[in-house]
Structure formats: C-alpha cells, structure tokens
Amino acid sequence: MTDKHILIQGAGRGLGLALARRVLTDATTRVTATARDPEASEALVGLRDEYGTDRLELVALDITDESSIATARASVGERHGRLDLMITCAGLLHDDARDLWPEKKLSDLNPGHLATSFSVNAIGPVLMIKHFHDLMTHGDRAVIASISARVGSISDNGYGGWYGYRASKAAQNQFTRTAAIELSRRAKQVICVGLHPGTVDTGLSAPFQKRLPEGQLQTPDQAASHLLGVIAQLRIEDTGQLFDWAGKPIAP
C-alpha cells in the first residue's frame, strides 16, 4: 500500500487547517477534513480547489453531537474503508458567545460552562475514537492522535486556575490512555496518543499571548510541522502516552 488516508477533525481553521495543508504536500496522501460547516471555511474550500476532490474531501462533523460523528463515520467508511492517521483538534478554552472564560477562582465556577468544556475537550475526542477506531484495525501501523494540553497534567499543575480547561483536558488524557489499553488488546499496530502542540497563534490562545516569553509562540504551520514529526516517530510502545511538540513525554 502506498496511499495513506488521513482524517483531521477541526480542519476549518487554526492548527487543524495547518495540519491539512502540511499532509497534503505528500502526494501519496488522501485527506478527509472535517468541520461543523466545512463549506463555510474559505481556506479549506481553497485547499480542495487546489488539490482536487480525489486528494481532499470535506465532511461535516460536529464534535459535540454524537449523531453527527456517527454520520461522518458512515460517510468516510463507505468511501474509503480505512484510516492510517486520525488527528482530533477539538479544543475550547474560551467562548465570548457563552461568556465562558478560564476560571481564576472557585467562585467563577459555572456548571454549564464546565459541561461545555468537557463536551468539547474530553467527550468529543473519545467519541471520535469510539466511532472511527474500527477503520484503523487493518493490521498496518495506524495512529490516533488527540490534540491535548500540558495543563491537563495533574502533576504539572503548579499554578491553579483554569478549572474547566485543566480538568477536561485531564479527562481527555485519561480517555486516550484507557482507549489505548483496550485497542492494544486486539489491534496491536494502533498507536493512540495525546499531543501537546505548545502555544500556537490561534484564536484559542489569542487573549493570553501578551505575557509569553520571547520565541514561545508558534505559528500554526510551525506547530503542525512539529506534531507531524512527533507522529512519524511514534512507536507501538508509546501508545497511551501524552507527548509535547518536541516529542518529550508529559507526566499524567
């Protein structure tokens, strides 16, 4: 087999879009890019026009709606039958429309906001694994990579705050680890990991960039390049772990 089939969830903008651009430069790669409304992303539609529908397929998928995930899975399975790499880029840190911002203290906690954070950051990614993993149990090397965050590490939490984001990303990491253990029992060539991209210049990090040390902020293309490099080097023994953009493991 020479052609690889890659699915990127959340490819309409930011890091997901940069990942799609990067993987498409490999002529042996076919890509399925998902977003809630992919046709509304001018950049994603432009990529499809550039590479053609044989190389890039756009599929609607709402990470917070399991029926949408299941519908997308059926569509992808019918057209392709297998995946070699799935990258889930779901992430919610703030949402002006919902007045949702990282909590600084206990009194900021809002049950509805916490539920929203868990829905996007933890539940959505594991539902992606639930519905798409069978396309990756074909016997060849396959990678499930969920974009996570260092702040999801409980042992690394030395500053507090950001309750919902920290906890939902910790839950995501636990889901990834648990799925990796299950999959390793029947699909030993599937590697299931979490990846921390660093601080990337996207809408998610935009309100929090002012105090960053010089050189710490990455462009989406830089982050995509780093992450794809990490993915390429993953071994079977790495399944279930969380790695940063430089390939260094992050303690749970």
UniProtKB/TrEMBL annotation:
Molecular function terms from GO: oxidoreductase activity
GO cellular component term of the entry, any: cytoplasm
InterPro entries with a match to the protein in the record: Fungal_SecMetab_SDRs (IPR051468), NAD(P)-bd_dom_sf (IPR036291), SDR_fam (IPR002347)
Name of the featured protein: Short-chain dehydrogenase/reductase SDR
Pfam family for this entry, one: adh_short
SUPFAM superfamilies to which the protein is assigned, alphabetical: NAD(P)-binding Rossmann-fold domains
The organism of origin for this protein: Salinisphaera hydrothermalis (strain C41B8)
Superkingdom of this protein's organism: Bacteria
CDD domains: carb_red_sniffer_like_SDR_c
